Amino acid sequence: MKPTLIDLLKTTFYIGAIGYGGPAILALMKKTFVHQKEWISEKEFMNALSLAQVLPGATGVSVMGYIGFKLHKLWGQFWHRSCIFLYILPATIAMTALAWAYFTFGNLSFG
Predict the structure, then answer these.
(1) How far apart are CA 46 and CA 100, in angstroms?
(2) Is the pLDDT of residue 82 over 80?
(3) Domain residue extents for the chain
């Protein structure tokens, strides 16, 4: 069963928000997309992972883009870009907030 655009984007944002990164995020993706949601098969996920490991860049971002493209061929490019954007958005917001806090409050003396 193919997910709707909203379901896929919410799930992608959720994974990006709670995922820790590195190999752990790949296990979370597999658990979510293969076992819980059953949107892709384990073989398709492993093919995506194999392809993503060969490509330059972050493996999780490449896998997420592949899954978005795989689920909807016609809208593949749109889904691909949307999935990647929402996957990295939570980390981008967190890093921007931490950078703001550091540059705003970094020179305070505690003594």
Answers:
(1) 39
(2) no
(3) 5-105
